[in-house]
Structures are given as C-alpha cells and as structure tokens.
Amino acid sequence: MDAVNRFGGTILPLQAFLPRTSTPKRKFLHAIYPSSATSSSSGSEDALLSSSSSLSLSLDRVSQSLFVKSPSRNSNSTPITTFSPGDDLPTSYVEDDPFKKAAPRRAGVLLHPTSLPGPFGIGELGKQAFVLVDWLYSAGCTVWQVLPLVPPGCKSGEDGSPYSGQDANCGNTLLISLEALVDDGLLDANDLPEPIPAGKINFELVAKIKDPLLVKAAKKLLNEKGPLKVEMDSFSKQPVISAWLEDAALFAAIDAMVDEEFWWNWPAPLRDRNPDAVKKVLQEQRSFIEIFIAKQFLFQRQWQSIHTYANSKGIRIIGDMPIYVAGHSADVWANRSQFELDKATGKPCLVSGVPPDAFSATGQRWGSPLYNWKAMAKDGYSWWVKRIKRAFDLYDEFRIDHFRGMAAYWAVPADSKTAAIGTWKMGPGEDFFTAIRKAVGKVDIIAEDLGLITGDVVKLRKAIDAAGMAVLQFAFGGGPKNPYLLHNHEKDQVVYPGTHDNDTTLGWWRRLSSEEKKKVLEYISLEDENDISWVLIKEAVSSVSRTAIIPMQDIMGLDNSARMNTPAVQFGNWAWRMGEAGCIEKLEKEAARLKHLLLKYDRLIG
Predict the structure, then answer these.
(1) Contact yes or no for 424/408 (Cβ under 8 A)
(2) pLDDT tens track for 322-345
(3) Is 121 left (phi over 0), alpha (psi -120 to 50) or beta?
(4) Is 401 one of the catalytic residues?
(5) Is 501 a catalytic residue?
(6) Which pTM value belongs to this model?
C-alpha cells in the first residue's frame, strides 16, 4: 500500500509511516493493535503482522487527505493546449472532470494533549492519546490539530503557555506518560504517584511530581546497554535533532546554574559562549546534559508512536508554530546574529507586538526579540530551515501563528512598556518561502491571518498556496461583507467555530447581548439555545472551505469554564482538561452526530 508524500506527490512505501525512530516492528504493531497484543503466546508476531493488512484502508484515507498536485505517472492524456481550433479531441477529453480532481474536503478536532484524561494532573502521551485517535477515526475525522508541543518557559511569566516556550524545538517532557515508562521498564509500578483528580492543571504541582520520576527514568535509560539505549543514541545523531538538541541541553544546564531571569544577564563568558567557559560547563554538567537529552528522547519516542498510529488510521496531525520565540531561550542565545539584539550584551533592541486597536488602547506587547531578517536572508534562512524541518519531524502540516508578520510586522522598542509606540517594518515576504521550498521542498502550512490584515498579507498567502483561517465567532458583526460569514468563505481556508483563543461557543453565546444574538439569528437557525455549539459545528462543516476544525469543548457542549486561553490575561490559562479516564469513550453519540454531518457535507474520506 502506497501513500502520497507531502513533498510534491512522491510515492512512499508503507514503511514511511512507521515510527520515525527505530522502534521495533513488534512494539509498533502492539501499539496499533493492543487488543491483539495482550499475550505474547496467544497470537505471536505473525498474528499481529497478518492483521496489519487492515492498514490499507487507513492509509488510503491519509493519501486522500493530502494536497495531491502531481499528475499520475501513468497518465497518457494529451494537454488540450496542444490542439488547434477545429481539431478532433481524444475520447479521453470528457474524462477530465475537475470535480473528481478537486482536493477532498476534510474535518477534524482541535485538542491539545495537555487536555487529555490522565491520572497525574495533566494529559499525557499514553493510552488516552490512542483512545482519542480511535475516537477521531470513529467520528470520520482525518485531522487532529494540537498547540505547540514545546515546554512552557519557566521564566516566561505565563503559566503553562505553549506560546512562551523556552525552546522552539524541544518537546514538553511533562507530557511523557509515566505508565508507559513502567511498561518500558524504566520505572517500577510502585514509583507511580497517587492519582490526581482531573481538574484544572496546576503546572507547578505537576512539575514537582513528575520531574523527579522523569530524571529517574532517564538515569536508568542512560545506564542500559539494550536496544532502547541504542535507539536513543541514534535519535541524538539525527541531523534534524542534533541541529538544536546540543544547544538546548547546554542552555538548560547553564540556566539551572545561574539564577538570572534572562541569559543576557549571565556572566559575560557564559553569555557570550566563550569556548573555555562552555567547555567547563560541558564537563561539570555532563550528567545534567545527558539526562536532558534522554528526556527529550523519551518525549520523541512516545509522541512519534502516537503520530504513527494516527497516520495508520488516516489521520494527519496539524501542529502550531509561533512566529516568534522567547528571548530567554537557546534559540536566541545560540544564534545572536539572527535577532535584533544589542551587539555587546545580547539584550533585545526591538520586540514583538501588535499596535493599538479597537480592543486595546495600548496594543499588545509580546516581548519576543524580532528577527534580523537581512542577516537571515544572507545565509538562506538556515535557522528557519532547521526549525521547519523539525516541525515536519513532529507534524504532517502546521499553522504559522501571526502569519501577517511574514509580510509586515510591528516593531516595538524593547524599553517601551506597551506596544503603543512602534513602527511597521517590511517582512521577508515571498523570498523567505522560496528559500524554504528550495531547502525543504513543498510545505503544507496554514496561515493564521486573523486580526489586522492588509492586502500584502493576502497576496503573500495566496502566492505560497497556504490556507487561511475563518472563525465563525467573528462573523456576525460588520454586515454582509464580513469575511468570516459563510458566503464569503474561500476553498483555501480552514474554518473554525472558535480557536484556542476564543471562548467556547456556548460561553460566547451566553455572553452576547440581546442585540448581538439578534444579528446571529438573522443568519442561522437556532431552536434550542443550549444546542448553539452544534449549530456552529454544522455551519463550519457546511462551509466551502476545504478544512473544518472543531474544538473538542464545542463537541462536548461546554461553557466558558472550559475556555483554553483568554488573550492578554497572564494567568489561569491553558489548564482545561476533558475529564477522568473513560470520558472519551462516553462520547459515542457525539461521534455519530459528527460523522453524520461530515457525510452530509462531503467531508467523510474513505
């Protein structure tokens, strides 16, 4: 069974969907068919291998869900442009059906792994993640969108935010499943902590409980000589990993040693990466660095097991890439010339944000250092090439947050306390994406083009063939020309009832004024206000936009208490969880209801 690769229609064998690390075939199949793998004596590997033939249909769903643009290599059709007026056309002429060639419509769910059920205070990359994939498959979904998988920055001041990570490429090790580590023999069952009720995530408490156990598992892995250790050694040597892992580990080691909020306040030899100072850290902090690398391997191994399983079910994973990275990060410290920094100290000169608008008189000051785009262009955007290659190591496609910054961006002086003072500057534009395509190949991205959008942003998005976004909660103000109303949608868009930055649909509805509700009801039919979540789900999947993505909170019909993030509010975000183990399996009716809508609106693939 073959599938279509994201890079230009090349055909890949089934092995391309196996784990990206050297996980043994038996473990992969056991992950996919756990019910068949409960006993090594009852079915043996032969039984598992024979059952793998059922992957064919699922891989059909994967290949059908891609943007397939290359023609069939066996096509014998002659382009119509080779004929002259009055010439006879071949009999195959009538077979050129543009509707059959159109990219299939699809739908999926937005849910970050932290929100999954799990016993230890946070969603994990364990059994419940596989249960979710099975649920998505049963509902007819072919995409699963997640937020950035990076570790939230401990010094970012934003509790648990995946958009304020300390490293753009590392995985969030708090997502590592402790129970899976027991299965791997890296922890004992009696090491596991007491279960924590599935309420809001307390990130500080979770770290306090899980970090010592992750260190223990990492140490045991480092002392092993078996296949798992060999697999880890291979992981750290992969170019897509080694390009960032060593700097990330070194940065984390120094950060643990030096009690400063920002790296530009470190002692000068460490701040400036003096070779002797770096060599000393590598020697004195060798154990810390090895444990850091081992934990990243464990994250990678568990995530790729889920990723591979999702692909085997015909489900593509859409990731999320914040356009900017945190100043206090290995990314900036190890690549100073690529950012707008003071040449002597490394302190940011210009930082990110957006200007004042109708919602904020002072704008939003995000505070991430801005890129030195001219310096980046000189070396072919190599820093970005490495970052995008890493993204495709984790995801099948991804969204670029604040895409408008690629066309033009708001530059705020670093010493300004608000974003009210700033300047619009030219972004890298199409030249950037040309360089990326040259280095990486065709990339499937979603452009987050919300907020202040000018003509250059739209022109750039269309020039690179990226899908834009439409959010229904933004649709019902400004009259019939509002771009988010259904009749203004475009095929090359991803439509959402709301995103992680919006309230849940039910929460949004309950906060609308009577006059605002009246405007909504002029456009949609609503018999029961408590069913507003499913009304907007129906509107989303009926859109002409090729992709529709539904927040899990809306599928569950939840109110404002399940909101994931409130922009410009620093604390109390990112903490929502679905519930206790078993809550996904209880969503059978919701899966059937969603599948019915997907069938009705031609989003059911396979």
Answers:
(1) yes
(2) 999 999 999 999 999 999 999 999
(3) left
(4) yes
(5) yes
(6) 0.86
